Every structure is written in structure tokens, then in C-alpha cells.
Amino acid sequence: FHAVLLLQVENVKLLDRYANRKAASGTLYLTATHLIYVDASAEVRKETWILHHHISSVEKLPLTTAGYPLLIHCKNFHVAHFVIGQERDCHDVFTSLLKLSQPVKPEELYAFSYNPKMSKENREMGWKLIDLRLDYQRMGIPNDSWEITDLNKDYEVCSTYPPEIVVPRAATKAVVMGSSRFRSRGRIPVLSYLYKENNAALCRCSQPLAGFSARCLEDEQMLQAIREANPGCPFMYVVDTRPKLNAMANRAAGKGYENEDNYENIRFKFIGIENIHVMRSSLQKLLEVCEMKSPSMSDFLTGLENSGWLRHIKAVMDAGVFLAKAVKEERASVLVHCSDGWDRTAQVCSLASLLLDPFYRTFKGFMVLIEKEWIAMGHKFSHRCGHLDGDPKEVSPVFTQFVECVWQLMQQFPCSFEFSERFLLEIHDHVYSCQFGNFLGTCHKEREELRIFEKTHSLWPFLLQRKQELRNPLYRGFTAYKELQPNTLPFSFQFWCGMYNRFDKGMHPKQCVLDQLLGCLSQKVTLEDNASHLENKLPILDGPLPSEGCTSPKAGAAAAQAPTPPEDCAEGAAPVLSNGPSLGHQKHKESPAQPRDL
Amino acid sequence: MEFAELIKTPRADNVVLHRPFHLAVEGTLCLTGHHLIFSSRRQDNAEELWLLHSNIDSIDKRFVGSLGTIVIKCKDLRIIQLDIPGMEECLNIASSIEALSTLDSVTLMYPFFYRPMFEVLEDGWSSFLLEQEFELLSSVTNEWRLSCVNKEFSVCPSYPPVVIVPKSIDDDALRKVALFRHGGRFPVLSYYHKKNGMAMLRSSQPLTGTNGRRCKEDEKLVNATLRSGRRGFVIDTRPLTVAQQARAKGGGFEQEVHYPQWRRIHKYIERFNILQESFIKLVEACNDQSHNMDRWLSKLEASNWLTHIKELLTAACLAAQCIDREGASVLVHGSEGTDSTLQVTSLAQIILDPRCRTIRGFEALIVREWLQAGHPFQQRCAQSAYSNSKQKWEAPVFLLFLECVWQIHRQFPCSFEFNEQFLIMLFEHAYASQFGTFLGNNENERAKLKLPQKTMSLWSWVNRPEELSRFQNPLYEANSLVIWPSVAPQSLQLWEGVFLRWNRPSRFLEEAEEERIHIIKYNKELQARVNTLRRRLAQLQAQDGEVQEEQ
After folding, report:
1. Which residues form a coiled coil (chain A) (predicted)?
2. Residue of A74, A233, A338, A405 marked active site
């Protein structure tokens, strides 16, 4: 694969926002997919890669003595500040990037041209890696109360749901169809997660078209069927994740929320998570804080507070915890919705599942969770991530918030996830990269129309290949922790420097414990092999081995005095620590497979 | 005085102990001269809580009917609650605790009564002598000497009997300089940077007064630390205005005319009551669980604690930079030179000197730069964050230092031989301890109290192998480089291990630490095993070869 070089500009400086080091000087290349900056001033060749799809904004700043500055903000929170010598060049780069970063037609997305040289069979296998039916099977579905139905195979129930959905067996086709007419965009109540231990179910839908007085018998029957599928509990929760005021305002538009008088034995509850517009502006404020030039502690903390970001994260987490508790401790089924049931609902359902079921904290399980609650159930990735040139008011960091909630959980439960922070960042990158088909479009129907299963690759096999570097060395396995009960007091939430200041390496710990531990684990196999190999060899020469215990500290001391270090050990030595200011690897890669040739 | 006089009710039954994240336990409460002891009566899991009276910062009592409740707030920031049946018992116990936790005579403190249950392998009182330090120094330079000018504590009451000064300055000159410096704290060597021969000195402010007094010997002393043609930096931990105002009270700062080779930098570090208030506010914020997110963040901000951390680290980086990057000698002082000065000099050494990042080296640093240098521990640590008394001598100066070390530790998790627990342990012992190490305000007082003879040193206990193993950082790999921490707000965090220690469940974090230790330990064992096997194989092959040759 030879990337076509669109533009090459010499004498470009890349400013370092935080360190007062001398700005790098080098060459900037534009290919069809990436902006590549090669630093010529460094002793070692340093490359900065920016995927065009990652660019959220390009700004020309006023002329400085150094030249014409160009400020690039990326969706993965990379901020690159270039200074270009010639105005003409700066303008060329600017206009090219504007065009390249805002594709108009879906076919222009990277996924449709991305070619990792993989056989057709493997590509197809890749798409089959995640099978949602298996996950329902894991929950014991189909069973006496729940069935997988293809009622939606022609998208008659709901155009944004997948063809197969899980509904109570007791709900007839008439009930399903009736309910779909009473739910916004036909998003009827369907099963999200069944807690096998007590049959309490987590279900999701959109808001009812209740207005001030409308009711729908089939919808009421639908909820009754959900409640009765869990005979262990006489009531069920209906949770509206919106602030009450927003929900009430919706009534005037003929939408709204369930009237407790019309539904039998429901307990209705509001959980105030703000809407996508509030979240978008909150992130904007947060990023402004992260970008401040040498802020004081007070500036930073005040900015963090005013952004409201951690307040929103806590709200999502609180909601997830509420759902998990209702299911586990009160043994009650819960039906969750917001307005359309594809943003806040996706956040809290996936979070509650993650809290309840250790499977979702494994590599595979987390992929299933995202495929199930986000992709299949029609979270509009394309709009929320701004994949195509479109309405900026549709963009919102809903998925980012979910990823952050998972990270916050990792801080409280460091041994309960199979994967590390890096896996989260990798997924987050690819939600925006459009390099793989998974996150394209807005729903299953649209993905079929885009023929992503025929034309693009699935992300998951690529990530699974990199399990070794993305895993959490502290993971104690599937059975070590069952349900998680996180502390949600405000002080349990931290600012996620690794996400929002991810590319400001100077701010991060200079020595990485994760690398150190991963190094140990990867050495482990080699060392164990070496040991058994040597042990096999010794008796031939020497008979039985003297019991020089490997736990004896003397053995270690003796080994340290050994005249020449054995080669294998040197090879497998723990990663070299870089130190303070000399830390210099700047190479940011956006994708596992990069076009190498320029 | 007999402690028995203070203990009206030595024992109460059916007392219920409440602690956050623990089930309430019923048991018996006993008071002794130095401890509050609670033991649960449960057969299956008998539990005992021993609390030093000197660890108690404040106590509140309230009654519902005849059931009394005592809330005890400790200097290590823990809060426990005891429900005691019987109004009289409760009142007696409360007043006893109050009296016993506020004894005003040092010699009544527990260290004077404590008899260790362990065998002393090494007397900590003589583990870290300045003479040893000087010996090390002499191996790389002969520009310094050990002066005993203060052996009777007559030149400077807050200095140790021996100090290190430039060789060219004699004791008579030192006596003169002492008169020119606040509290007699003439400039002494704090740290010698082997890499480039630069020195860090510390002192108190010069007594220039309003009429610009000068002292030739003082100028000579500090200039003796400069390389020819090179400049030095005076880092004054007060803002310029404060330093100027100090002149009216007889204090002052080094004026350019008299110290032409020195550049003065004012790097303000907050002190005394401001720090204490900040500490109190932070702890209050951490303990109030009713806060929503906005309120928590605004309280965290308003406490200014992290601001102080950032400022302090910045100042330490500045001092370290002057020495390592600028190749200049540095003199650090504020007013008295017993608080912010020591914070800066000791943190700069953490950054510059790999030895200070080892366990023994860090202990030596604390002895040298805090205990011997005359940080008034007894005054500063008399009360912690829960005290209501507004005495002006308390301040969490040492805690701030420990937290800064923790912040650097977090950024360089593999460069320290000790772990977070080690820092927390030092915090605890500085405020309440069975050991005499942190008693008294300076070496002079310690000598008068005969602490080395009458009490046990903390180091005697800590440096025993079984204790040390708890404080070792499994990730440690000696790093001989200078470590520059980031002071960006994003890089600094609240020290949860101290401030949230009692407010959150710790199980999952402890398990993570166990896991880390396990991974590294297993790796090291494997490595050792492979090496041993390989050596053995090589030996055998060599023997084999010899045998063949003989044949």
C-alpha cells in the first residue's frame, strides 16, 4: 500500500505546548489518510501521525515572528500547533485539511479504503468474532420467559433496532407492534441484560408518546410481561435518565414519561443525566482547562469544577450503580429510557451490565458489550462523533463518558479488568478513526446499506491480536470479583489526565508501572522455558539437581555476581526506564497498521 | 504525677465501637496511662484497638439519655466513635482522655515509658551521624570542614553540635556570622552536588535591619562556596515585600551591593497558620460525605492545599535547577530557616541525589535536614487537623514535605526504594509515637531530655529486616539520574493514602499492591533460578572439559 502524497511542506515547526523546549523543525506531509510530521531536528527520527478523520478543527492563528501558525485539534484530544514558514503553504495545508477532515459521503471514510492485506475469509471471520446470540445464550436465553425474535427483520418494529431483539415470551406480536407505535421512533422495551441469579432483567426503550394523557394498552401489557418474567419481585422500576424538567417539557410535544397510574406495579424514577448539548459544552470547557498555558492549581480546579464534567461522569456512574443495585439487591427488573434511548440509556445499561457481570470486564466481553448496547441498539456513532460533515449540534461525547466511567472503575478496582487503560484509549481512538466498519453509520440498517460487512474490516480481531500490550497485568481473573460496588462519593472520581492530556507526555508519570509489569509478564514465559530447558539438560550431566531453592535470597545474590550476564536474560530484560526531561518518544500512532511508504 | 489520678474510670463494658467501613463491634474499653484499648468480646474474631493518647487530636461527647457517645478524632486523621453506657462512666472516660492526650510535660510522654518487645540490632540514635556524612563528602572534596563551634549549643541553639562549613572559614568567623543571622543560624552546607561540585547552603535571614547592616564574614562565608567567576543564587522563600518588611524588625535579605556575585530569587512558600488552616479545610472537605461534585471540587480548591504542594515543588525544582542545570551554588532561607527552608533543601535533594531515594538515604535526609537542622517538630506537630485550639505554632510543614515526596514518587514509581506506606508511617510517627525521635524541637532540647538514653529511636525499629520488608518498593531499580517532576496541576493529585485513608474501602487497592509485589517477586525468583542453573551448567561443562583433557 503506497499512500499517495498530496502535499509536502518543508521548514515546519511543531511547538510543544508545555515544555519550553526548542520547537521541533521538520517536514509536513499530507497523504490521503494522514498528516505526517517528521521532525528533522531530533537525533532520532521522530514522526507524528495524525489521521484526517481524527481532526476536529483546524485554525489559522495570527502571524508570529516564527511564521504562520496552524492549530489542529483532534477528537482524541491531541492538539498540534504547527508554524509554517510561507503563508501560501499554510493556506494550502489549511484548505486541504478542511476538505480531508470533513468527508461528505460515507464512501470517503477510511474504512472503505483501508486494506490490511487480509484474506476475504479472515475478514469475514473477523465480523463473526462477536456473536450476540452467544451472549444471550450465556444469560440462558431463550428460556421460559424470554425469546429472541426476528420480528424486526424488515425493520417494521423499529428502524434503528437490529433485526433480532429479545422480548418477553408473553408479549405477542400485537403487543410488540402496539407498543412500538407508542414509543418514540418505535424503540420498544427490549432486554439488555438478564441477571441469571434472580431473573431480574435490565430492559431499555425510548420515551413513551404519552403527552399529557395518552395511554397504550399494548405498551402497558409489554411492561406487565417484563415484570411478570421476574416472578421473584412484585414490582419493577421504570427509570427515566433525564432530569425531570426535561422529561416534563417533552410532554408538551406529545412525548414524555410513564404515568404510574396506568402501569401496574411500576416504580417510576428520574435520574437526572443532562442531554447531549450540555455534555458537548461541558467537554468543550474541560478541554479549555486542559489546554490552559501554565495554569495555577486554583485555575485548574476552578475550571474543572465549572466545566461540570466530573459532575456528569458521576451522574452516569450513579445511574449505573442504581440499576445494578435494583437488579441485584432488590431483585427487581428495570426498564430504562431517556428520550430516544440511544445515548444516556446506552451509557447506563452498559455500565450496569459491567458492574453486574465479570464477563463484560474481559476483552471479549467488553467487545460484546459495545456491540450489543451501543452498536446494535443504534447509538448514532456517525452523528455523535461527527464522522461526516454534518450538524455540529448532533456531536456529543456520550461514548467518551462511558469509556471514562469504565476508567474510573479501573481506578477503584485495579484487579478486576482483563484489559488496561490502553485498550480503552485504543477503542476510543477507533470510534473516531473510521478505519474499521464497526462504528460507521447510525444503526444496523444503515450499516447494512453501507455494506460495511462486505467492504470493511471489524476492529475487534485487530485488538485481540494486541492483547499482550493491552492487557492488565494485575487482572485476577474472571472469578475473583463478581459484582462491583463502586464508591461514588465525589472524591472517588479523578481527572483522567491519560485521556484529556494524553498527548502531553510531560504531564504523565515518567516511569510507567504498567510497562514494567507487562515486561515482567512477557519475560515470565521465556524464563520459565529457560528454567525447564536447563533443568532437563542438567541431570544428564550431573544427576539430580541440588536443591538451590529459587526463593532463597542467596541464589539471587549469587546470580548477581555471575561474571557475564546470560544473553537470554539481557534480551528479556525489563523495559528501559526513560527519565525525566530526556524522555523523548513523540511518535503517535493512530492505527495498528500504518502506511509506511511516503 | 500519677496517671492513675487522671483515670477515674479505667474500664467500661458493653462499649460499642464505630468506624467507617467496619461493622460496629461491642467490647470492653480500658484506659491506661498512655493508651486507650478497646477489645471486642467476640469469641470468633477477638479484635483489639490500641490508640495512643498522644494520637488523639480532639474529642467530642454527647448524650442520648444515659447513653454517652464519644467521638475521637486522631492526629493520623482517623475518626472513631465509642458508645458508652452510663453517663458518669462516659464523662469520666472523656475527661481522662482529654487530660491524658494533652499532657504538657514531654517527659510524661509514652516514649519515656515504652519498653520495646524487639531486640535492638542497631541503635538508631547513632545510625546517622554528621561525621559519617562528612567522611563521604571528604572522599570527593576537601573544601569543607566539620566545625564543632556549636558543641555547647551556644552559637546557635537550634543547630546541632557539629555542622559542615567551608574550610576557609574559621570558628571565630562563624561566631560573627551567627550574630548576623536570625537565631544564630549561619549558612551551613546542606547538600554537595558531586556531579559538578556545586553546593546548597541553608541559613536564616540576615539581620540587615533598616540601616543595611552588613557582615564581611557572612559575605566571605557564602562566597567561599562559589567557583571563581561563577554566580550563586539566593532563594528566599518569602515574597520581596515580606522580606523588605522584615527589615523593620531587624531582619532582611542579602543586598546586591554586598553580595554582587549572588542573584536573589524570591519564591514564596506559605507558612504557619496559613498552612494549618489549609490542612484543616482539606481534611474537613475529605470528611464531609454530603458534598456533591461541585462542592467537593470547590472545597478542594478553596483549601489551597494542592496549591501549596505545587508551589513547594516548584521552589524545590528551582533550587535543583540552579545547581544541576545552571551549575551554580545556592543559598536557601526564609525568616527563621526552620520550615520552608528545610522543605526546599530536602526536596531538592530528593530530585538531585539518588541516595536520598533509598530507605537509608531518606532516613538520613530526615535526620540531617529536619531533626538536626532544628525543625521544631514538637511545636509543629502538637496538633493535627481536628484541633480547635488556635495556637500559632502548629503547621503541617513536615506533612507537606512528605506529600511532595509522594507526588514525585508517583511520577517516578521505580526510582524510590521505599513505598507509600513508609511515608505514611513517618507522618504518623511525627505526630504521635512510642519512639523518641520526633520529640523536642531541636538537638539542644533532645540532649537536655536525654532522649538517646531514655527513649528508643524510631530508626532502631524501622531498620529491622522484618519491618523494612513492609516498606520496600518492589519496583525499585536504582536510578542514578536527576528526576524532574512535573508540577502541572494535571500531574498532581490529592494524597489519598493520607487524606482518604479512613474514608474509603482499601481492600481493592491493597489487592492491587499485593499483585504488583507478587509479579515482580516471581519474576526476580525466576531470573535468579535461571542464572543459577546456567552457572551450574557452565561449571559442569567446564569440569567435563577438564576430565576429557586429562584423558
Report:
1. none
2. A338
A533: pLDDT confidence band, cut at 50, 70 and 90?
A: confident
pLDDT at B505 over 90: no
What is the average per-residue pLDDT within B39-49?
A: 78
**Which residues constitute the domain of residue B514?**
505-539
Nearest CA in chain A to B414: A511
- The answer for residues whose C-beta is within 8 angstroms of residue B211's C-beta and 6 or more apart is none
A557, pLDDT greater than 60: no
**Across the interface, do B304 and A298 touch by the CB < 8 Å criterion?**
yes
pLDDT of residue A6: 87
Q: Are A345 and A337 in contact (CB under 8 A)?
A: yes
* CATH at residue A54: 2.30.29.30
Q: What is the pLDDT of residue A535?
A: 85
Question: Residues A394, A461: one domain?
Answer: yes
What one-letter code names the amino acid at B258?
H
pLDDT in tens, B154-213: 999 999 999 999 999 999 999 999 999 999 999 999 999 999 999 999 999 999 999 999
What is the sign, positive or negative, of the torsion defined by CA atoms of A215, A218, A219, A220?
positive
Q: What nine digits make up the cell of A204?
A: 431499555
My answer on whether omega of the bond before A142 falls inside 30° of 0, hence cis, is yes
Distance of residue A456 Cα from the nearest chain B Cα, in angstroms: 39
Cβ distance of A305 and B297 shorter than 8 Å:
yes
B504: nearest CA partner in chain A: A487
Q: Is residue B163 part of a domain?
A: yes
**A98 vs A587 pLDDT, higher one:** A98
- The CATH number assigned to the domain holding B16 equals 2.30.29.30
Q: Does A521 fall in a domain?
A: no
Whether B209 and B331 share a structural domain = yes
Q: Do B446 and B510 share a domain, yes or no?
A: no
> pLDDT at position A536, please?
85
Determine the average pLDDT of the residues in A411-435.
98
* pTM of the entire predicted model: 0.93
In a domain, B91, yes or no: yes
Interface A–B counts its CB contacts (< 8 A) at: 211
Please indicate, yes or no, whether residues A153 and A93 belong to a single structural domain of this protein.
Answer: no
Interchain CB distance below 8 Å, A413 and B508: yes
The answer to whether the Cβ–Cβ distance between B489 and A550 falls below 8 Å is no
Question: B321 with B416, same domain?
Answer: yes
Alpha-carbon distance A502 to nearest alpha carbon in chain B (angstroms): 11
Residues B459, B515, single domain; the answer is: no
Number of structural domains (chain A) is: 2
Tally of structural domains, chain B: 3
Selected for mutation to probe chain A from B310, B469, B503, B530 (highest A CB count within 10 Å) is B530
The closest alpha carbon to A289, from A511, A433, A504, belongs to A504
How far from the centroid of its chain's Cα atoms is residue A96's Cα?
29
pLDDT of residue A314: 98
Q: Are residues B22 and B138 in the same domain?
A: no
Cell of residue B141, nine digits:
572534596
Dist CA A412 CA B505 (whole Å): 9
A587 confidence band (pLDDT: 50, 70, 90)? very low
Residue B353 lies in a domain: yes
Q: Who among A490, A538, A574 is closest to B292 (CB)?
A: A490
Q: How far is CA B264 from CA A391, B232, B419, B438, in A?
A: 57, 9, 36, 33
Instruction: Please check whether residues A66 and A138 belong to one and the same domain.
Output: no
* A338 is an active site residue: yes
Quickly state the pLDDT bin for A578 (edges 50, 70, 90): very low
In angstroms, the separation between the Cα of residue A82 and the nearest Cα of chain B is 23
Phi and psi at residue B52, to the nearest 5° = -70, 135
Residue A96 domain boundaries: 5-102
In a domain, B110, yes or no: no
| Residues B491, A497: C-beta atoms closer than 8 Å | yes
Answer yes or no: is pLDDT of A546 > 70. no
* B45-86 pLDDT, tens digit each: 678 899 999 999 999 999 888 889 999 999 999 999 999 998
CB contact under 8 A, B529 and A558: no
pLDDT of residue A45: 83
Whether residue A541 lies inside any domain: the answer is no
Instruction: Check whether residue B39 and residue B137 sit in a common domain.
Output: no
Kindly compute the dihedral angle of the four CA atoms of residues A55, A57, A58, A59, in this order, to the nearest 10 degrees. Answer: -160
CA distance B323 to chain A (A): 16
Chain B residue with the nearest C-alpha to that of A565:
B531
- Mutate one of B534, B535, B546 to test the A interface: name it (highest A CB count within 10 A): B534
